[in-house]
Design brief:
- This protein is mainly alpha-helical.
- The protein has two domains: 63 residues; 105 residues, Iron/manganese superoxide dismutase, C-terminal domain (minor pseudopilin epsh fold).
- The protein contains seven helices and three strands, in the order ααααβββααα.
- Strands 2-1-3 form a three-stranded antiparallel beta sheet.
Length: 198
């Protein structure tokens, strides 16, 4: 059984009201609860020999949505911090971003531009350990659009619940606020871990 992680240390985050964050934490906890419920229901159907039923098929399809909803929120809250700092220009990640996108500034423009696209979803900076390169990716639904085998490094939620309470329709303002909260140390650790596991 998965347990919800506590992200209350983010309360007071500049650019994010406590009300928005508390609502978002509650939504995340729902994904954790639903992941557990689906895992239990699927296990029971398996024991009962009902894997050929429409109920089993629909729950199996739904599981990826709930699980990824849980995990993506953990990555998202996990790469935010009060008083975010810029990425160290001497870091391996900064050098890789500059190499793959031409410059850090070009990467940032691409990431923000991806986040500003119409629609709901996630923006994810992925590292592909097989090809040895970075990609900014749009993930529309929790369970659709991920790069297989790639490691998520930086995750930004662009579903409306992540910003509308504070920013209304001004998604670009939310994106700017998000960038001021990035915990580049955590993002760099994710990157180095992916390099080490190659």
């Amino acid at each position: 059984m998965y347990q919800p992680k506590n992200f209350e240390h983010l309360l007071g985050l500049k650019g994010f009201s406590d009300q928005l964050l508390k609502n978002h934490f509650t939504l995340y906890q729902g994904y954790v609860n639903n992941t557990n419920r689906l895992a239990e229901a699927l296990s029971l159907l398996l024991k009962e020999g009902k894997t050929g039923t429409p109920e089993y098929a629909e729950l199996k399809r739904r599981f990826g949505w709930e699980f990824n909803g849980m995990r993506l929120h953990e990555y998202y809250f996990g790469n935010m911090v009060k008083n975010g700092v810029e990425l160290d220009k001497d870091s391996q990640l900064y050098k890789s971003i500059s190499q793959d996108f031409g410059s850090y500034e070009a990467w940032e423009k691409d990431f923000k531009g991806t986040g500003a696209m119409r629609g709901i979803g996630w923006v994810i900076l992925y590292y592909d350990p097989y090809g040895g390169r970075l990609f900014n990716t749009w993930v529309n639904e929790h369970d659709v659009g991920h790069l297989s085998g790639a490691t998520p490094l930086l995750i930004m939620d662009v579903f409306e619940h992540a910003y509308m309470t504070d920013y209304g329709l001004k998604r670009a303002d939310y994106i700017e606020a998000f960038f001021k909260t990035i915990d580049w140390k955590t993002v760099e650790e994710r990157f180095l871990k992916s390099l080490a596991s190659k």
